[in-house]
Amino acid sequence: MNLPVFLLSVFLLVLLTGPTVNGKLVTLCDSPHGTFQSVSILNCKNTDRFCVFKKNTNVSIEVNFVPNYAATSVQTKIIGDVAGVPIPFPVNPKEACGNYGLNCPLTTGDKTQFKMELPIKAAYPAIAVGVTIKLVDESSANLVCLKFNAKITE
């Protein structure tokens, strides 16, 4: 087993999610360079406790946000928390500009849509997991940041 698959397996194996916050699946984290508008995650409702991700499928994720300045580079970061230790999920390509529906520089004040297909590999253990998705600009500040719970199933 290669190192990224091993680290992700450890991450998924150790983390067990808790309940939703205020009955909502998605919670927001600090995003000083943008304003979150909405998120759509395949087969998830905001009232669900977690999203169900089936192995050997791709999960469609769409995030709408409004940047408050014209970012020229946007990095995609997907992060898990294992016993309080953040572990990055391998994203390829990391650069969202020219990928995932983003055209850079972003237009200040315009609604922007990020679209990604997240592969759920057969090697991932079938457990519950917390997920953080960040879109980070060239100054390493969040344009948008959100967290949700997911459960990987057979």
TrEMBL record:
InterPro entries on file: Ig_E-set, ML_dom
Q: Which residues form the MD-2-related lipid-recognition domain?
A: 26-150
Q: Which UniProt keywords apply?
A: Secreted, Signal
State any GO CC term: extracellular region
Domain of life where this protein originates: Eukaryota
Q: Name one Pfam family in it.
A: E1_DerP2_DerF2
The places in or outside the cell where this protein is found are:
Secreted
Q: Where are the transmembrane segments?
A: none
Chief localization: secreted
Signal sequence bounds: 1-23
Q: Which family does it belong to?
A: Belongs to the NPC2 family.
Please give the name of this protein: NPC-like allergen
- Source organism: Tyrophagus putrescentiae
